[in-house]
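Mods, move this if it's the wrong board.
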Amino acid sequence: MLIEQAAYGNRWRQVSPAAKGAFALAGLIAAFAAPAPLVAAGIAVLLAVTACLGAGVAPGLYLRVAAPAAGFLALSALTLFVSIDTDFSWRWAPEAWPRVAELGARSLAALCALLGLVLTTPLPDLLGLLRRLRCPDVLLDLMVLCYRMLFVFSAALHDTATAQQARLGYASARLTRRSLGLLAANLTVQVWQRAHALHLAAQARNGDGALRFLSPQFAHARRDTLLAVLAGGLLIAAAQLSAGLGA
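Not the wrong board. Structure tokens:
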């Protein structure tokens, strides 16, 4: 729930989602327009600093959210150093370093661009933006349901674990293993039952259309979007300028 904590507690909470989306899109374009790994890494640092200093996202929270994706990226980059020959034998390929560095730096910059969006924009605001962009209703409904079930799962996990701790369910290694097994089994049943109840409730209301929610109004939306487009344009121009200088 760290993402929700940052999305509702940052300084850009009342900034138009269209503005933040435009800047994130510009960050993605700049990441793939970067001519060298060092330039892409610089774009990643710039986007991260913008989220932390501009939007007020705590650096520790930012790193905690980015750590799983960054770890997956590092692991994926390591696998690119493995070369498989035609006889299915493999070898370490250090000559792939330039290509791996370029791919990894661009992916890191793209990750920072997306983190700047999700850590400053709550999901209901993102859904409103995607609806205005004509995204399929089925996809948006699935996002809403998954979003809701995450909180249901979190609440069930917290309540069950608290009850087990109150009964000394984690007092020893044997009791810990037993409690974890009961916790997993109980959560599986609870989440399935609540999802089934949600499905029945939708059917009882003849829910055969898209889910609709009121979209909040953002003051100075046009101004914010214009500033975001200008800032994104400068970011893309800087990447293109560095490409020209490198050529």
